[in-house]
Design goal:
The structure is a homohexamer of 72-residue chains. Chain A has 72 residues and is of the alpha+beta class. Chain A has a domain of 45 residues: Roll (SH3 type barrels). Chain A has one helix and five strands; from the N terminus they run αβββββ. In chain A, strands 4-3-2-1-5 form a five-stranded antiparallel β-sheet. In chain A, a hairpin with a 5-residue loop joins strand 3 and strand 4.
Chain lengths: 72, 72, 72, 72, 72, 72
């Protein structure tokens, strides 16, 4: 909640935008060691929204993300 | 405590506002691996307040939130 | 230590002030999974001070707080 | 490393100053669940320095502190 | 997401740039205790991208990095 | 990555500079509970570089440091 614009020039932000647009299936590893899989629908400064195989949304806090991996 | 206005333009903030207004039951996963369920009553920059089934409030620090899931 | 004024307009800050004034017994869940109980005596931007049943103080860093629960 | 002055007006900073001046023995609980005991010698924005019973210093990062407890 | 320029004057940023350019194999230790190995491809303020031996990318959040070790 | 100058006036920064200059062997405790030992070579705002007994470098992120202890 520190800044009000998503920095769309950053590689990480742009790659996530591409993965959202292409509806690529991804894995999100979280600091609790949870591994979520699904398709990302939107991102903002605080969160990334992931839909699972039943199209149920999970709003993930960025602070809790360890890594993101597109499924090959 | 870094900024004084809740950025109501952000998708994550707006979706939480909608979940509060609609009294949707949600799951909050925390970095301690606790999974709280209940209805959110308010949010500010630091915290989200969740009421459980006995209407008891829990003030959750945002920094400790991993993800939020509306119950289907 | 990023900002110098406690934002007394925020619901979370005000609710803590009320719990301090009313000497409400609370539970503080910490990221180490410790659960402290007692009455809060003061808060500032960095910390919350909790007194236990023997009136011994513990200065808790906000960054380590997961949730706060007034005892019913 | 976000701000350059220690905010000496804050209760938490002042109480730590008092504990340093009075050479009070304290317990520091850390996010790794370590519990250090000793006397604090100095604080700055990033760290608190603790000396153990053999007068060996440990520089503790504030970000890793969960709570501080003066020994009764 | 707090600042918009990668501070290329910092030793840590420059060393990572060198490791990217030289395609040095590295180990990345993460706060979940995962140990990733591979070659870094890019960095920005939020993330570092690592390719594994099958050339699959993993976007690692900086906040989750504990240490980086070039393989000898 | 929030500020561009290392605050060389701070006791913690200065003590680390002294430990670097004197090539003092140190222990670095990390949030993963790893305990690294070696000699520090440089610090910047984001990281501290530690060389082990085989002179292999490890770039440690400050955010992951719990405490630093000069070996007696």
């Amino acid at each position: 909640m520190t800044s009000s614009e998503l920095e769309t020039g950053l590689p990480s932000i742009r790659q996530i935008q591409t993965l959202i647009r292409d509806e690529t299936e991804v894995e999100l590893k979280l600091i609790t060691n949870d591994l979520l899989t699904g398709k990302m629908r939107w991102q903002d400064q605080n969160c990334i929204c992931l839909h699972d195989h039943y199209d149920q949304p999970t709003i993930v806090w960025r602070q809790a993300i360890v890594y993101l991996k597109p499924k090959p």
